[in-house]
Amino acid sequence: MTFKFDLEIFGKCLQGLGQGLMQGGILMDTTRMIHRRGMYGGMSIWGCGTFMPGGCTPPLNIWHPMYAGNTTNPYLIQQGNNIATFQAKEIFDQAYEYYKKQEQQFTPQITDSQQTTQTEIGKQIQEALQNESGEYSITTSQYNALLNKQNKTAEEEQLLDTAYKASVKSAGESYMNCADKEYGNSDGSLTKDEFTEYIMGTINGGTDCSITDEGREAIEAAFNKLNIDDNGKISKDEMSAFIGYLDTVIDGKKDGKITGAAFFKALEAFESDSNMKATLQQIHSDLYSE
């Protein structure tokens, strides 16, 4: 989660530091007067002379080093800094919790217990992409409402960006879970052979369909472009980059809606667009860079 510098919060932190120093100074002067009978010596109210280092009451020994005055005493400054730091931490914690709650309104949260649901979402995405008139929204209704809001603040724009990336990543993982479950070995990735089975099963209507050498070359070209890191497997995050590619490059809208029409255009781009892999790499970097 990203926080920008807030002048008002910074000012409150400085105010807290000043209050801490002031409180420490008042306590110092009060303690010194009680402990040493005034600012300039004499018998204290405890009956001890001013020559006694630290005085006669152990609880007050901690204040005795304050010979140099309020502004130069290192212990006082440390105490003030401690108070200000504590107050700053409270402010940060409150801000963090606030923005965390705000972000959760727009970010899909998927846990292990929802794995079945995630696979079902992947199936819905797959069905939408198989149909040229199909459409699937990967973002939440709260996201869409904020997206359409006029005059968004910088914080809202940042929130939208964070939520969008989370939605794309979640959709890619769901889509991969579905494809891997049906055509792979459920290890969270697709090999070239598994990817071929996937293409044959989803695009051509079944794995028993024959495939020409030209068609196999086209599938291999698609696999090589999706396999961004060239490790021989298409991973969940690489599939997420492909989901982002459909929305931001093919559709060019970045509205959280992926369509079958965009998917079929992407199939053509696998063969015709020599820059597609570099584009996918950039989308992947944008999604997963901290």
Content-based structural category: mainly alpha
- Multimerization status: single chain
* Biggest sheet features: 2 strands, antiparallel
Query: Which bin fits the share of residues in helices?
Result: 55-70%
Total strands: the figure is 4
Low-confidence stretches: 34-72
Sheet-strand content, in percent, reads: under 5%
Summarize model confidence as the mean pLDDT. Answer: 75
Order of strands across the main sheet: 1-4
Rg over CA atoms: 32 Å
| Count of DSSP H/I helices | 10
Along the chain, the helix and strand elements come as HHHEHHEHHEHEHH
Shape label: elongated
Question: Concise description?
Answer:
This protein is mainly α. The chain has helices at about 5-35, 75-105, 115-130, 140-145, 155-185, 190-200, 215-225, 235-250, 260-270, 275-290, and strands at about 135, 190, 235, 255-260.
